[in-house]
Amino acid sequence: MEAGASAPLKTRQMATATSGTRVVPGRGGAPKSGASWGAGRCRLSKVGAGRRPPPARVRVAVRLRPFLDETAGASEPPCVRAIDSCSLEVANWRNYQETLKYQFDAFYGERSSQQDIYAGSVQPILRHLLEGQNASVLAYGPTGAGKTHTMLGSPEQPGVIPRALMDLLQLTREEGAEGRPWALSVTMSYLEIYQEKVLDLLDPASGDLVIREDCRGNILIPGLTQRPITSFTDFERHFLPASGNRTVGATRLNRRSSRSHAVLLVKVDQRERLAPFRQREGKLYLIDLAGSEDNRRTGNQGLRLKESGAINTSLFVLGKVVDALNQGLPRVPYRDSKLTRLLQDSLGGSAHSILIANIAPERRFYLDTVSALNFAARSREVVNRPFTNESLQLHVLPPVKLSQKELLGPSEAKRARGCEEVEPGSPEPAAAPASASQRFSPLQKLSNMDPAMLERLLSLDRMLGSQGSQGTPLLNTPKRERMVLLKTVEEKDLEIERLKMKQKELEAKVLAQEATEEEEKENSRSLLRPLSRHTVTVAKPLKKAVVMPLQLIQEQAASPHAEIHVLKKKGRKRKLKSLDASEPEEQKPEDCWELEISPELLAHGRQKILDLLNEGSTRDLRSLQRIGQKKAQLIVGWRELHGPFSQVEDLERVEGISAKQMESFLKANILGLAAGHRSGPS
Ligand code: ADP
Ligand code: MG
Predict the structure, then answer these.
(1) In the chain, what's the furthest Cα-to-Cα distance?
(2) Which ligand places an atom closest to the C-alpha of 67?
(3) Helix ranges (DSSP H) in 328-478
């Protein structure tokens, strides 16, 4: 590798905690900040779109593995020494006076256990997944330094991957339990990058897959197999055979050297159970990188040489990406290798990232160790900007386009449903989709349905249920329940009929009463306005309340001769307040209202509109409701061509203004202008 090989051997301090933090400007092309994504065409949005998400530096831990040959430690001292829990020094075995000192976020010595590394550096970032944020763990280092041991481990000493999966599944079970606000589901994908080809380890027959970036800057691989997992047994069932598909080969440094970069992707999907039905998606990348190869020491030839060329290239590009980010270069060469393209999220992107640099104590690893530590120190200066990946679930199901492989095949879906049911002796509760899945309409081919879609339908169903919707039933209600429901509906209909009849009777009574009162009023020549008394009626179908335009409320209250405007609004459930103190407030929210204005005010309002139409400039016209720049110009043009408007209704003759628009224009303007008359000259 670069740098380290030619680095001068003198004492120097590298990558201190404080100096390491630097805000990396947005990279060219792929947007990083919420602001730039928020303006996109996507339906999905981010929490805090418009604000730049706070920075989170890539965290770097270094792990020193023990001597593999226990006797070796006695004959040669390790070339790496711990200073404290975060710092180490590398000694030049030719001159022990010269050392390189490094400081990282954590340093794990040769006696550290798998649990130490996991609990100290990996476990803390898992919670971000439940916040809908991304996280990445990368194992880096020379071949034979312990990357696979750290990530995968052995049955006796399980590594980061099994521990993280165990915890994550436990966490999602707890957080997604019935009664909690979010329903959670976990899926896994597993791939390797071998000789610049992206291969699906869960479906080894598939060829090289392409890496794409969606409109939100998310990196995705269309066609990559995703398996739903609800328990650790599930995970193992998919992961273990897939690991066997990984390309490995024997080199002199490692009998089973990983010849590819292996990427395990775990997705945590969250769907809010109640309105506003938000969705969140958090992705966890667990990456075991192939080691850098020094062909003189690995003895590589032929295919191995070609492989190591590809590995070195991608790791070299990885170094360039880190440097470009640190220097704030406008172009970050993510696209120069498949590995860096995939890691776009993890380095300088939106993930909480942790790099575990694995190093070996043996003298023969010296150059690779220095080189790995230099890379780790540079990576520590990379700043990511994690954000919450959140979207709102529309009430109407959007057409979801899923690639063929994202949709589960019939057998797979069956298996997935089976997994979601409680396995005997398993602590996992049955997930919601499985428990309700049989209730779906037979038209819906469940076996072909994506579990995410299934969950979406279920939440829609729950929502309809909670709102008592009478819409087209989504679920296939069993016959007996359906009969009961139909009976209830029938009874409700009868009840409504009965109420309607009763209302009609009451209306007739009220009309008769009104007629009598009217007569009495005529006789007594009362000065009271008729409407002010009618509002007291209880059973009138269209009840009336006295309202005034908002700006007049105070004047009206002060004036003893207040004119009365009656607002009767049909079909709108709006609660209105009476301004007349003498009038009881007996309106109920479910009442209907219509607009009535005294004829005098109406006439005045119309006249004012007419005056404006005939004399007003484009700007004056725009002060009217429903008249924008375009319509104002049309009106002025019409006036110039045909002369003044003789009545407001002439507006309909203006090309581009329909009768309906004219009507809504009148409704919108007349009350305001009539009010203008009451409050004095406008
Ligand atoms: P890499 O993946 O970096 O090429 P491996 O993880 O395969 O290296 O490790 C090489 C060898 O060293 C393996 O036999 C592994 O079991 C052993 N090893 C690595 N790290 C440790 C450790 N921390 N403790 C004990 N053995 C280790
Ligand atoms: Mg390995």
Answers:
(1) 125
(2) 1
(3) 338-342, 366-379, 410-420, 432-437, 451-467
